[in-house]
Each structure stands twice: as structure tokens, then as C-alpha cells.
Write a structure and sequence with these properties.
L-amino peptidase D-ALA esterase/amidase; Ubiquitin-like (UB roll); homodimer; six-stranded mixed β-sheet; nine-stranded mixed β-sheet; globular
């Protein structure tokens, strides 16, 4: 299947408009903090959410609103997570009502999300005062929406593609935010996907739930699973393809398109991890099972010592082996090979569990790149898995040492 | 039972001598890197070890040597972990032989340990050349041994106490090292305890195994479980108390003395965590079970975001709740109270799962202290647990970004 990257973000598919403005939730006077995405018609909708027991109020409301499998709009603010507040549910519902009031869309068809500090009451007033402004500015403004959902993100995270299903041109777009408190178990931080593919809510949910296991759930910036993780997709059917209502060739094409977008954003989220200077990809091969492959990849990508070594471009592979050893799954240590790669080349550092001679200079050159892979062959089977993360830097500590002030 | 702190470290109990010298494993010409502890007579011995699948060669040899429940000496080097090396076992056994050669102690009665970089062959030559020097200098030199086992530790970690069992004056001493790669599951890094109490190997092992669950296993600096964690105790019986061979009043006294030393060192290890500026203690109360209490305490103490907030003296309690929420155990979020304490006082920040008004200024003053407690009442039962950790700082990143060079 041919997938082509195009411009447009969440507005790339037919029938979607977006906008993002500064409404005043953030003290910073410039940064957009209020986003809206709307489909021309009601869309099939699916979501995956944080498994943290402490859940943001918007997560609870969105889950309930998506229970019938349909939605038409997404409202989101940054600057406040609306979590652990007494009136949180009330405010989240009020946000849906704002969209309803200005658009006529039923409030139960609105997806609501918030991101930012936990535990401070979210004042609805700035959004109430600006709902007309954001509504009237709706258009081909995915970038504004993308900016509005950022917190300490340093880059806008967006992707859009086109592809064919059943001879019809289809498109998919997505925006995401996520830099810290990133260690998803059901989805990561905020990700909103749009598509004009015609697909039933049940198949859409299946596609999304299956996909995140190998995409967003394999990302870790700091091992802290957010209270507000939400990944939602709207599929409005305007591409005119034959409705996908079961597993088959068309469904598989849809899965590939979806996976293209989710892996693209997983890598972007990892690379923009708070304070990160580089993307780290951990490729595990030769595993006896998927469980083992994923556990090893996640353990290595989460290790503070591995992350700090990558920051220092230090080929300290002993820390990689150490993290494999405490991953909690059975591996044969004396079968493990480890190498590092980047666009500068590959260097083997460990064979069959023991260190081998290698050039520290060449290793340094490879590890100084801004995208580095740690390759682990367990030599015990044929299953593989990939996880994405980033290095641990002074900047991470700085950002998180005084986030609220 | 009255416990009194005394001087002497591992030499405080009757019949123990120690020494530590620079033999040349480390390039640094000053730092001691070679330690020896010897009992005048054969002693009951017990150990707990890393559960990391990647195990240092010395761990394997020590386990085997302690299988009969007795030992008489401890040899240890720093600067090289002797782990993931092809000739690791050979070198570890050779170290035991060195002790045997100079002392006449059977090599199977020697405990061997190494700490430092993983994956570089350990050259036995400097130890071979200095075994006579270290042997001849044996005496009341616990501090030298303590210094010799340090890696990036900034302070020597030692404690010694006296107490009474059955009318006899007994003593216990210990030295420890541990700053990074600290997240024990069976013991933490290197801890050597000595005592003159008379106790059977079986009861000694039971006491140690039970104790570490609530002491060293509740410490985390960076979530990385070391490949070389070893905690061993020698009990030579020279205090002359009636042999402790079963559970009872004397055993309980011994457990209390042991716990005094292990908690003392747990706090020292946490406070001296790599780059740390402060000790963080997480006290969980009101839990429905021990499993829940411990999981919550460990999750909070391990959270990078909580650790960074503590570094910034930022009362960001939302991160504490977040870490409770992903601890993997069932808690009633809407019952949770959180407060922070230090010697400057206590401040409540969260009641029944929601934020409450509090003075940021007073909170800052409390959190600026070098020993801070995070207090979590789950209000769901009567069980409690404590975990120890430290803040996450620029210095941690600096130390670990280029540890090997």
C-alpha cells in the first residue's frame, strides 16, 4: 500500500476544520491555549485512555460521551489538566456545552481534553468568553490547534497522509502533545486523529486499541504515566469508500495508515521528551515471545542510567545489559548481542553476553547523532519489538524542578 | 531494648579487623580501592543478593561459598564490577584464593564482592601485589575499608551499635556503598555487616532475609537494579550470649539491632544518591495491605517527576497523586490525604483526593530542608510502609552522562 505524506494535519481529511487561539488560561500572553476540531458530519469515534487510577475529569467525560461510538467535535485546553479538582467533572461537561451552544452539535458528541498542571481548579471563564472567536476562526488551521495543545513541547507534533482504499482517495491527519509524564499504558498524553475513511465504530475502536499496543504504549520519556492520557480518532466517512465493517483487505489498509501516523508521532513525542537532545530507539529482535521483546525494549528505554549515558554519548553497554536483567522476563544472558547504530553507522559492543573490543572513538561518533538505535538480539526466537525514548539531560531536571512557577 | 551508637564500624564487635588500601585498580592515585574484613574465628554467615538476571561473577562465587552457612573474611574491590567478563568467575575465585594464601582461611569461607564499571575485564595483578600489605595493615580500620568500597559515593557509610542480649554486651557494625544503579530487590549494592552475637546460620539468614524487605528493598535512587547487589553479615559469636537458634525474645532483640543498622544505612544510601541534595522519605499509612503500602511508597519515591519537584522544593503534589495512581495496586483515590514534612514543620496539600489551599511560601520553606517526608494516608486500613529516595538533580545527569571517562 502506498502512503504519501501531505500537508494539512487534522484538516487534511475531507470535512474537518480546526482552530487554536489564546484565550487566557495560561498567564503567558502569546501561547495559544484553546483548541477546537470539528467534523462537518457526525463521525464514528474511538478512544483509548490512561490506566492511571487518578484520572483527569475530561477523561471520564470523554469516555462517557464516546460510549455510543460517535462524536463530531474535540475541545481541548492546555495550561491546566482539570484533574484532582472538586468541580472537575462539572467544568469538563461545561466545556462540551460551550461547543454545543455555538455549533448545535449535541454535547454528548463532544470529546473534551485538558493538559497542564494537576490539582488547580480550571476556570471556565476564558473559554466561555472566547468560544465564539474560536468557532468563527475554524478553517484549515490544524497548526493553530496543534500549538494550542502544547505544554512544554518544543515542537508542534503533526502528521497527515493520503492513501487509497477501494479505489477511493482517503486521508488521515493527527496532532499530538506529550513531553513529560510520558509512559503510557493505554495511550499517550493527547493525540487527536481525524480521517475521512468510512468505518464502523466497532472496527475503528479495534484498530485503535490494537495499534497503540505497539506504538504509543512503547514510548517512555520519564516513566511517569499521565493522569490525562487520551488518544481519540474521528472517522467521518466522507472519502466515500465502502464502509469497513469487518476484518479484511480494506481494514488492513486502514491499520497500515493508522500505524504510519501513530509511529510517526511516537517518534516525535520521544524525540521531544522534556529536555531531550536525542531520540533513542530500542530494537529488540530474536525474542521467544512478544511479551519478552516488549518488556526488554521498555526496560532499556526507561533506564535512567542508559538515558544519561546516551546524553553523554557514552557506549556504556553494561547499563543496557543491566536493564535487560531486571526487565522481569526470562532471557538467556549469555546469548545476548548488543550494538548501537545511527546514520553514522553501526558498532557491535557485546556478543553472547560479554564485552568485545570496540573503538570508543567510532562509538562516540555514532552516539553523538540526534537519532540513535540500541539494538538487542536475544538470539532465542523470532519475535521483535521496538520502543522509543530519549536521553536524560540537565534540561529535564531544570524543566521539572520548577514546572509550576 | 536499648541501642546505643558507638564508634568502630565493622570493627566494633569483638574479634573483627578491617583494612582498606589503594592497590591500583582505579586510575585515581589516592582513592582506596581494595578492602578486607576478617573475623578472628569462623562465623555464621548469611547473604542476600541482586535478583537481576545479569549477575556479577562475585555474586555467584559468594553465594556458593556461603552455602554451608559459614565464612570468615570479606574481600572487595571498587573501580570494576567484574561483571559480563569472560574470565569473571576465575578472577572472583582468585580473589578468594589470595585471602586464603595470606591468612590460612579456607577459600570457601571468603565472601567476595566487586563494584564499578560493568563489562571491563578485572585485572587481578594489583590485588595480588598488595594482598600482603592489606593483610599486614589489618586492625581497627573500618573507615579505610568503608572508603575502599566507595565508587561515586560522596560520604563513607557506616554505623555501629551496642546492645544487650541475655545480659551479654553485644555489638554490630556495618559499612555500605551505594549511590547509583540503586533499586534493590534482594539487597542493595554492597553492605557488609559484622556482629559478635552467637546465632545459628539458619536464624541469621532468616533475620537478614526478613529485614531487607522493609529496609534496603525500600530504597531507590534511580530505579536501576544493580547487577552486583550483595548484603552479607558475619556473626562470630564472641559476645558469649546463649546461641540464638530459634525465634524468641533474644531473636527479636537481634532483629531490632539489625533493623537499626539497616534502616540507618538505607537512609544514608538514599541521601547520598548520585547528585542528590536531599533525602526523601515516603511514609504511607492507612493502607489495606502491606503490598499496597509498599507499592505506593516505592512508586512515589521512584517517580522522576516527584524527584525533580523535590529538587526544586516545589510542592507539586499532583505528581505524588499521579505516581500513586500508576502504582499498580487498588487504592481509593478520593480517600487520599497528602502532606509534606521536614524539621521546619508540616503542611497539608491534598485532602480526600483533592487539592486544598495552602501557603506556597511555607511549603517552599519546608521542602528546602535536606530531609523531607512525603506523607500519604490512604485512609483505607491500618498498614504502613516507608521508602527512601532522593531528588533528581543536574548533578545526577552529569555524573551518569560520562561515568566511564
Amino acid at each position: 500500500m502506498k502512503i504519501k505524506e501531505i500537508s494539512g494535519g487534522v484538516c487534511a481529511p475531507v470535512g474537518f476544520k480546526a482552530n487554536g487561539i489564546h484565550c487566557g488560561i495560561r498567564k503567558n500572553k502569546v501561547k495559544r491555549d484553546f483548541a477546537l476540531i470539528v467534523s462537518d458530519v457526525k463521525a464514528a469515534a474511538a478512544g483509548v485512555y490512561t490506566s492511571n487510577l487518578v484520572k483527569g475529569a475530561p477523561v471520564v467525560v470523554t469516555k462517557s460521551n464516546l460510549s455510543d461510538g460517535y462524536a463530531q467535535a474535540i475541545i481541548c485546553n492546555s495550561g491546566n489538566a482539570n484533574t484532582c479538582n472538586k468541580n472537575g467533572l462539572e467544568v469538563a461537561k461545561e466545556m462540551c456545552k460551550l461547543v454545543s451552544g455555538v455549533s448545535g452539535i449535541k454535547e454528548e458528541d463532544v470529546i473534551v481534553a485538558s493538559t497542564g498542571v494537576i490539582g488547580l481548579p480550571l476556570d471556565i471563564t476564558p473559554m466561555k468568553e472566547h468560544i465564539n472567536v474560536i468557532w468563527e476562526g475554524l478553517g484549515d488551521n490544524s497548526d493553530f490547534a496543534s500549538e494550542a495543545i502544547m505544554t512544554t513541547d518544543t515542537v508542534k507534533k503533526s502528521v497527515s497522509i493520503e492513501f487509497e482504499i477501494g479505489g477511493k482517495r482517503c486521508a488521515m491527519g493527527a496532532i499530538a502533545k506529550g513531553v513529560g509524564m510520558v509512559c503510557p499504558n493505554m495511550a499517550t498524553n493527547l493525540i487527536f486523529l481525524t480521517t475521512d475513511v468510512a468505518i464502523t465504530p466497532a472496527m475503528l475502536q479495534k484498530a485503535l486499541s490494537d495499534d497503540v499496543k505497539d506504538s504509543f504504549n512503547m514510548v517512555s520519556v520519564d516513566g511517569d504515566q499521565s493522569t490525562n492520557d487520551t488518544c481519540c480518532i474521528l472517522a467521518n466517512g466522507l472519502a466515500g469508500n465502502k464502509l469497513i465493517d469487518s476484518v479484511g483487505a480494506d481494514y488492513n489498509k486502514f491499520r497500515k495508515a493508522l500505524n504510519y501516523c501513530t509511529v510517526y508521532l511516537s517518534r516525535m513525542i520521544a524525540k521531544d521528551g522534556e529536555g531531550a537532545t536525542k531520540l533513542i530507539e530500542c530494537n529488540v529482535t530474536g525474542a521467544a515471545s512478544k511479551t519478552i521483546a516488549k518488556a526488554v525494549a521498555r526496560s532499556v528505554i526507561k533506564s535512567s542510567l542508559v538515558k544519561a549515558a546516551m546524553f553523554g554519548a557514552d557506549a556504556n553497554w553494561g547499563r543496557v545489559l543491566c536493564a535487560i536483567g531486571y526487565a522481569g522476563v526470562k532471557v538467556d544472558v549469555e546469548a545476548i548481542d548488543v550494538s548501537f547504530t545511527s546514520k553514522k553507522g553501526e558498532i557491535a559492543v557485546c556478543k553472547a553476553g560479554y564485552g568485545i573490543d570496540f573503538s570508543e572513538e567510532i562509538a562516540k561518533e555514532i552516539l553523538l547523532e540526534d537519532e540513535v538505535s540500541i539494538n538487542i538480539n536475544l538470539n532465542s526466537g523470532k519475535v521483535k519489538a521496538t520502543a522509543w525514548g530519549c536521553d536524560l539531560t540537565y534540561e529535564y531536571v531544570k524543566i521539572n524542578g520548577d514546572y509550576r512557577t
